[in-house]
From TrEMBL:
GO terms for biological process: lactose catabolic process. Belongs to the glycosyl hydrolase 2 family. This is beta-galactosidase. GO terms for cellular component: beta-galactosidase complex. It catalyses: Hydrolysis of terminal non-reducing beta-D-galactose residues in beta-D-galactosides. Coiled coil: none annotated. It comes from Kineosporia babensis. The lineage of its organism: Bacteria, Bacillati, Actinomycetota, Actinomycetes, Kineosporiales. Keywords: Glycosidase, Hydrolase.
Length: 945
């Protein structure tokens, strides 16, 4: 039997009418095959399908309630790293039958893993006689088998592309069509691969997208590959023809293209090529194979041709029409595909699109779609996601260990957004590649399918085999890169997202050049080094001959937004959020949920700003990929996004905020520090990262409080290879203590404005210590004096603080459950900036850069067990897995006196520490120091070891 056309999705009849297409969406009979006996018992016959329910396809059985409730025995697809859920007493209520809730990912209301049978009757029209009938299933999860009446047709197992079945010539009349879909692990691609895992989309079972039958002539255009030639303003069009056993006969193919998606019309001239399967010499040159033929045509696009890129996404629709005669029969067939005049390559250590150096500003798309549990297949849904990304200044989506449906490519093409596509593998955590396992061959199969199906899309500029492999990965993937680059050179290839960095790669997608690397904990940059904006990764660039696109940068967590729970109206339920909300309520802090979200969010945002800018200011750097712009609700719940799982903004951040520091043109300031004294000169270097469509003629200016000035006017070239100007602001220009904003502004000759800003903290006059406030590091002495009626400031030896919650400057990385409790365990601090203890210390209620020296080496006191009314003056925010009530500055009545306990770092004469200490002292010396809560001596002693 002749194989089904590889790209039938974009194939239509030449008459452009629909009598040869039958839509199969609608009601189907469905039955769960729990014991996997359906094939043995002939369930493919209409009479044998047992206890069939009715449901809709496209769709999944789980979203329609067919399956089982979640229990402790649910056979999840995906590793659970933190196993404490199954033993910890805190989780006991969530292990009760009928009340099961898991904390490690979103939980479907219905679960099923196994085979499902789908069946319906179809009516084959009389006019389809003599035509081959093709069944098209756009996205199946994941192995499908098809029967027509009692005849088994075939099986397919792609996770990345449509399943197509050639039913042959089907007699007119009523027929029974049966599908068997099995979502068990067919090939070990890795249990956490986003193509299959419950960590992300969920292990759904069903068919989504287009379901249809199509009646085709005996000879068809099987596939069309378009290879743009930017310099020649043309395209090489490679056409594969497929036929039944009668051969391809004689015929001709015509090809033309029209531009759309940008203003103006452009239609190319039609070119034609003839073929004849009786002329053996010609056929050998064209690569004739049994049942098919191959033609190459060069399509001139002309001087009017416009190139495609992120700034000008000019698209062409190519139409190939074939007219053939086989024996006495004539056949017509048309094939359409979209392409762009686009070339991607490497210039030195950077990626270039159409010869222009670009900077990859990407984020992950991890197949998180909570309402359905599977990805959308309509263009508008993907257009929305892409527009959200573009509004944040990004230009790429990376599909982590999965390949999206056609609609995502089409939306990216039309919006001018780049894609990094991956095979469906995360062969790690039990999986491996290069060891002769079935996954090795499966990767080649899937790569071939992806490139054939989606290779013409200009947005598809980067490809990796998958994510973070294990096994003999370097050797195996070196051959994989070389093979596919030779086979299809229209994009850049890398071995994998994460590693290995091997010579065969076009670019390296590696995790090392970023602010936090796995396991660094308090030795990571934000925790170990005072804040500045000079760090870059030029040493990595100089040591690596290929472009570096840093892998999964950021991963800075924010507190859960419990208001988001109301959005989960579909399959996936936020049972993890329910658990965390319960923990917070049981700790007596439910009323602080929004406060925790806002405070941790502000810290997250400033961390991402410095993370992105560090890469942007690196000369010759290739780009970044965030993990991620939106939340990742799996792997223990990783709330790393400034957007939620629905790609909606969280209340502390906007796209405009983000785009100031992340875009094609970004002003940058290199500052040796973030905290200054008013009596010292402020110095900084202006740098511009410009990766726009052309050099800029622009004016650059700066402002700081009352001081402002012109830096320079002139041309800003593409790239970020050199500093623009050095600026010095005389000492005394800033006279007041507090936060001041440095703003850089670029205005080009066309009036476009690009701005960025940095909060700088200035400290003026030194507040003298208050002599009559008693300070001590001795806990016993502090209790003795406060008990006698004195006001005491206890600054204990920080090594004596009893705590399991490690406090750092940065927020949690990824999440403490998945990282096996890597420090820090806190998400910044919260406080009331109007509290009189902080009257002399500038702050806005959350962690900012001026808090670094106070938090460096500080400890968090665990206040669990103390009166719930005790609210810390400065409160570290614990990870949501524990929801411990923490304090770094607390006040209480003890005996006849009053006690303030501070576990922030107040050592030394640093202006920040000195001012904070003096502000607290002044409060203690005032009549406003009237703590509301009374503690026992034993309460205080319990805070220390």
């Amino acid at each position: 039997m002749t194989p089904a056309p590889e790209n039938q999705q974009e194939t239509t009849s030449v008459t452009e009418s629909t009598p040869y297409v039958l839509d199969l969406s609608g009601r189907w009979r469905a039955a769960l095959d729990r014991e996997h006996v359906g094939e043995h018992q002939n369930w493919y016959t209409a009479e044998a399908l047992p206890d069939a329910a009715e449901l809709d396809l496209p769709g999944s059985v789980q979203e329609q309630g067919l399956g089982d409730p979640v229990t402790l025995e649910t056979p999840w697809t995906g590793l659970v790293v933190d196993r404490s859920y199954f033993t910890d007493e805190r989780y006991a209520p969530y292990r009760e039958p009928g009340q099961v809730a898991v904390p490690f990912w979103l939980q479907p209301h219905t679960y099923y893993r196994g085979a499902v049978w789908f069946q319906r009757s179809i009516d084959i029209p009389q006019q389809w006689q003599g035509r081959r009938v093709i069944l098209h299933l756009e996205r199946v999860h994941w192995e499908s088998t098809v029967w027509l009446d009692n005849r088994r047709i075939d099986s397919a197992r792609s996770l990345t592309t449509p399943h197509r079945f050639d039913l042959g010539v089907v007699e007119a009349g009523r027929r029974t069509l049966t599908l068997r879909v099995d979502n068990r692990t067919v090939v070990d691609v890795g249990p956490n691969a986003h193509s299959i895992s419950d960590h992300t989309q969920g292990n759904w079972n069903g068919v989504i997208g287009s379901l249809r039958l199509e009646a085709l002539p005996a000879v068809v255009i099987r596939s069309v590959t378009v290879i743009p030639d930017l310099a020649g303003r043309s395209a090489r069009v490679r056409i594969d023809i497929a036929s039944d056993s009668a051969g391809v006969g004689q015929g001709r193919v015509t090809v033309s293209a029209r531009r759309f998606n940008v203003p103006g019309e452009h239609v190319t001239d039609e070119i034609m090529s003839e073929f004849d399967d009786q002329r053996e010499a010609d056929l050998s040159e064209r690569g004739m194979i049994e049942g098919g033929a191959h033609l190459d045509l060069d399509l001139p696009l002309g001087e009017q041709a416009e190139a495609w890129d992120e700034f000008h996404p000019a698209l062409y629709e190519l139409t190939a029409r074939m007219f053939t005669t086989v024996g006495a029969q004539q056949h017509e067939h048309a094939y359409r595909t979209v392409f762009g005049l686009r070339e991607v390559g490497v210039q030195g250590t950077q990626i270039a699109v159409n010869g222009n150096v670009t900077f990859i500003r990407g984020t992950l798309e991890s197949c998180v779609h909570p309402l359905t549990g599977y990805p959308p297949t309509d263009v508008e849904s993907w257009r929305r996601i892409i527009r959200v990304n573009r509004a944040h200044g990004l230009n790429l989506l990376r599909f982590h260990s999965w390949c999206p449906p056609e609609a995502a490519f089409r939306a990216a093409d039309e919006e001018g957004h780049y894609l990094q596509v991956e095979g469906p593998l995360w062969a790690n955590q039990g999986g491996a590649i290069g060891e002769g396992r079935p996954v090795d061959a499966y990767l080649y199969e899937e790569t071939d399918r992806i490139l054939r199906e989606f290779g013409n899309h200009p947005s598809f500029i980067l490809m990796a085999h998958g994510n973070e492999p294990f096994g003999r990965d370097a050797e195996f993937l070196g051959a994989w890169v070389e093979h596919w680059r030779k086979r299809d050179p229209r994009r850049l290839y890398t071995s994998a997202a994460g590693w290995p960095a091997i010579p065969e790669n076009d670019f390296d997608n590696i995790p090392d050049p970023r602010t936090y690397r796995w396991g660094e904990e308090l030795d990571a940059r934000f925790n170990a080094r005072p804040p500045e904006t000079e760090t870059d990764y030029r040493d990595w660039v100089q040591a690596t001959p290929r472009p570096i696109v840093s892998h999964e940068i950021g991963q800075w967590c924010v507190y859960p937004d419990f208001a988001e729970m109301a959005k989960y109206t579909g399959l996936m339920q936020p049972k993890n959020y329910e658990i965390f909300a319960d923990f917070l309520r049981e700790a007596g802090m439910a009323d602080q949920a929004q406060e925790f979200l806002h405070a941790s969010g502000k810290l997250q945002l400033l961390s991402y700003k410095e993370e992105v800018e560090s890469a942007l200011r690196t000369p010759g750097f290739g780009g970044i990929q965030l993990l991620g712009l939106n939340d990742f609700p799996g792997q223990g719940t990783a709330l790393v996004g400034v957007l939620d799982a629905f790609w909606d903004e969280k209340p502390y951040s906007t796209a405009a905020d983000w785009a100031r520091f992340c875009g094609p043109t970004t002003p940058l300031a290199r500052l040796p520090k973030r905290v200054w004294r008013t009596d010292e000169e402020l110095s900084f270097t202006v740098q511009v990262a410009h990766f726009g469509p052309a050099p800029l003629q622009a004016r650059v200016s700066w402002s700081l409080g009352e001081a402002d000035g012109l830096v320079q006017e002139g041309t800003i070239a593409l790239g970020n290879s050199s500093d623009f100007a050095k600026v010095s602001v005389p000492a005394g220009t800033v006279t007041s203590t507090g936060r001041h904003k440095l703003v850089l502004r670029i205005v080009d000759v066309g009036g476009a404005v690009f701005e960025n800003d940095w909060d700088l903290w200035f400290f003026g006059e030194i507040l003298e210590p208050v002599a009559d406030v008693f300070e001590t590091a001795d806990v016993d002495e502090a209790l003795r004096r406060s008990g006698a009626g004195e006001s005491v400031l206890l600054l204990p030896d920080l090594d004596r603080v009893r705590t399991e919650a490690v406090l750092g400057f940065s927020t949690v990385f990824w999440n403490t459950a998945w990282t096996r409790n890597q420090a820090p365990h806190t998400l910044g601090i919260t406080h009331d900036p109007q509290h009189p203890a902080l009257e002399g210390f500038p702050s806005d209620g959350h962690t900012d850069w001026q808090w670094w020296s106070l938090l460096h080496g500080a400890k968090a006191m665990v206040l669990d067990g103390l009166p719930i009314e005790l609210r810390p003056v400065v409160q570290p925010i614990d990870t949501w897995f524990h929801a411990r009530r923490l304090g770094a500055l607390i006040e209480a009545r003890v005996g006849a006196g009053r006690l303030m306990v501070c576990t922030l770092n107040l050592d030394g004469t640093d202006p920040v520490r000195a001012r904070f200490r003096a502000s607290v002292q002044r409060y203690l010396a005032s009549d406003r120091f009237q703590p509301a809560v009374e503690l026992r001596e034993s309460d205080i002693l319990g805070l220390f070891i």
